[in-house]
């Protein structure tokens, strides 16, 4: 499966029989507990802003990090700690990104040490993450005060508290978990994520923490995360801004007691379907909950000559501010789709392109062979008035598909971001 | 001068003595007349939407076109007509882009033929341009009816009417002209442009028509246009959307009777300074008049290791929706500048970066050596409350500068674009 177009694999062969969505988020997998608390990192905040995830044994672990060259201190420290592919706890705060601070590394390491001390584990096995305002001083005080409290609160039911703690401008929790079987062993995989603005490919550009009890080597864990990230989080865009701080981590406790996955085999394939089910849904919810968004926009590109062309085209469309504003008003301005296709970094023959708008209210073709076709504006308006809008682009030049997710651009995006710091 | 960093040239050696800004826009240069009329291309529009520019002799001509792979029919036709580097008239309409229409080429060619017939010139010497909604049928009727009227109205005072005719969501006219000398000959160069949304580098992504009476070969005209475009229109971004239709054309009548410029010599250098004066101001005004904009943002990048790095960094900053919204609220959220620098396609050492905010209200350093420094929020607020805000980034890693222009992102951008077609 390694060299196939991953999207094609998942579109054509959905294969989710045997996967059941369950409750439990980041605590669904055996061995994991979580907690959240209001550490008052952001003055006047009424919500949780610090979370702890803990496993009672050392896990295999993998992570992906932002591609931004300006990296938050937690990114630097977590990379260092995960060099050996092992981790046992995650300490994460919202309200302050701990980025572009002169003492950022010191604070991030300090948070890990305080966590390690409270849990009696090695500081090298602690993952640290932060999200919030860049360039604002952060002290160790809220960690000193709240990590012991978090430790006391750790519970298999703590997933909601933890999920709330990582939210910034998110309007709702994002967590999913699935149960499935490897051989006769029941396995679980679940996760939570945040991210609402500063969402653009080149990795998640959000925080996501995923846990599983599947027994799998660090190497295969990393491979799975990379493969599935490429067609989920990397295909989400809210505003084209790639954050400095974001990461997705995947921890496996091994408690499911399956035959350890150490190579690309049938069990690996079953595992990545589970990972896809969780990550794809987290990614979609991130787009749907984009800052100020009123609609989820899914762009499906079909029949591109290469996977790169398909992906670049889909992302270009969900990224276009002009298209996003048109969708917010349910205006079938398909010319803006053509325009965004045209400036994608991709090769295609304009005269073969067709475009359809779809939603649960129906489907309408608006462009064929690169030129407009007659369609009912009323019907198109109805279709685009739904909360989930799909733009289907057929490039008619190969057999590679891609799917990207984005959201509309509304007044509220401007409102939310105009005075975010205050 | 060909291989130098052009921005450096123009920053360090401004050299505008001897250039006087004058009235007259596209009619300032000897030999050119213009006219504008309301052809009712867009129903209910109260403004001019069709313009004609005419020179009483065949001009040398050069043009640059959108990089969008979906190209408006007028782009295709104009490219064909300008293959010989000669032109005599420009027919342009707003309200309809004549793009993605099945009969687009036919209409664009038809408009040229009608213009040629009215003026008794060759259709091959007519430039055609359109801007407006994509994928909306356009007929020859408004051209048939209005080109004879435009011909009758042609005048050296017609520049305002023409300038109004090319506006779409523009809130004001954009035209500049300069007078200067080559030897003892008085020369003039002037132009007009439109463009307010769908403005992103990779050429102008706007319509711009520039005329001069300087005697200069088509080849040198093209070279000058390309050089100056690279540091003016290509450094403007309103929303990251690269349009399908935009072009900048440059026509020279030769009436100034200077020694013809046929090589890179001192006269050529004097000429490109004049071209820079006009194009830079048109570009800046386009940014200032970006859809919904309340502020002009100028990003100056200094001391980059290469010109490419300097340009990529400056554009990344003026393109960031998060920074643009912060500036709209005069919020000194400099972390978003660092974030945008970080995801620019450019190499630099984060630990050397400094950032200043400046305007006529003062200048304040907010970041040094890649980390935040203490500054007065009140002072920063005052500085960012001005209508022209400058963000100065010093990369401290070479000696290449670049300047990019953009605007803030406000509620009104969303408002203007949500229902543009209606």
Structure, explained:
The structure is a homodimer of 422-residue chains. The N and C termini of chain A lie far apart (48 Å). Chain A has 422 residues and is of the alpha+beta class. The longest helix of chain A is centred in the middle third of the chain and has 23 residues. In chain A, the strands form 2 sheets. In chain A, strands 1, 2, 3, 4, 5, 6, 7, 8 and 9 form a 9-stranded mixed β-sheet that branches. In chain A, α2 packs across α3, α3 packs parallel to α4 and α6 crosses α7. In chain A, β11 and β12 form a beta hairpin. Chain A is built from 12 helices and 15 strands. The radius of gyration of chain A is 22 Å and the shape is globular. The interface between A and B is large, with 64 and 64 residues.
Helix content of chain A: 25-40%
What's the count of strands of chain A? 15
Beta-strand share of residues of chain A: 25-35%
Shape of chain A: globular
Largest sheet: number of strands, sense, barrel closure of chain A: 9 strands, mixed
Q: How many helix segments of chain A?
A: 12
Characterize this entry briefly.
Chain A has 422 residues and is of the alpha+beta class. In chain A, 32% of the residues lie in helices and 27% in strands.
